[in-house]
Amino acid sequence: MSSLTTLARFKAYAGITGTAQDAVITALIPQVGSQIERYLRRTLAATTYKVWLDGTGTPHLRLGQYPVLAVYQVSTGSSTVATVENTSAAVGLANVSCDGTSLSLVEMSSLGVEKITDITLAGKTIATLKTAVELVAGWGMTILSTDWENKAAALLRPLYGQDALSPSTADVVVPDKPAAIKVVIDDAITLVSPAPSAVWRNYAPTAPSDVEWGFPTGIANVFCWYKAGYVLPTDAVDGPPAVAASDGTLPPGLALVGHQILSDVLGSIQLNSNMQSESIGDYSYTLRATDKGAVASAVENRKKDLNQYRRVSI
Question: Packing angle between helix 22-40 and helix 7-14, nearest 10 degrees?
Fold first, then answer.
């Protein structure tokens, strides 16, 4: 959960001088941040991503998170570096999935007994991943070349439900053919020169301007390792060690909306959080026509203010 503001910053905004509400405000700050991110369909805190994106057939590619702070590697191709296989005679179904975090070995015995083994990729090379796979009964992994043994397993391409019941094998795929790129806007990159596996649309150009090339068209075939997001604000810490307060880089307008939503939620805890309106004369009240909680309702009430920061597509 992202904390888009701090206790001191919100109290300054709301004009709160006492400490009676500090615990409540501190608890609400990450909850409000989480709901705002959910509505915006973005991760706001600066985060590093290793993702496989769909190639567009053009030199341009939109990234899922923004603003882009750094790009560490883009690869326009991939290579199969190993195969995984289950050779147990007692298994009737075996497949392999990789979600970019874990390699999952899935098997079902001839009697219908299921077994799923998840092997974490972080901190492993292809060689040590092979060791981990072969510790699971019935499973084996073959590295196709010693050149791949020290490749980081964390780079594996996400693939799901690959048949691995012998004689079938599941492929272990890593990025290949690095490409030079530049960031053109907050969430987009472009190739600066033809990559080895770029798509060429005009094979016999009459002039340089006739050449068209780009990221190869495909599904999850372009690897991008990048960092995107904002530095979130922090309060000063007396220490030791002492840490100075930081404004961060969150857009001021978004920070303001976050304060407004937090103020709305804080105010609602004095009342029934499901109450929409209340009258004094001939007392009556109306409940909200929603099953959302107080924080989600407060975010929805401010969605017009949030829309300019919302990710256009998912």
Answer: 100
User: Could you give the CA distance from residue 168 to residue 36 in angstroms, rounded to a whole number?
Assistant: 46
CA dihedral 226, 145, 219, 180 (to 10 degrees): 40
CA pair distance 170, 203, nearest whole angstrom: 35
Which tokens go with 149?
Answer: 């043994």
Q: How many CB atoms lie within 10 A of CB 39?
A: 18
Tokens 């810490």 locate to 237
Tokens 């304060």 -> residue:
259
Q: Kindly state the percentage of the chain with pLDDT values over 70.
A: 88
Q: Whole-model pTM?
A: 0.81
Quote the tokens at residue 248. 């961060």
**3-state SS record for 110-132:** CCCCEEEEEEECCCCEHHHHHHH
Q: Are 67 and 111 in contact (CB under 8 A)?
A: no
Q: Extract the tokens encoding 192.
A: 């600066």
Task: Give the pLDDT confidence of 276-309 residue by residue, as tens digits.
Answer: 555 555 544 444 444 457 888 899 999 999 999 9
Type of residue numbered 268? S
Token digits for 71?
């790009």
Nearest to 14 by CA among 273, 291, 256, 268: 256
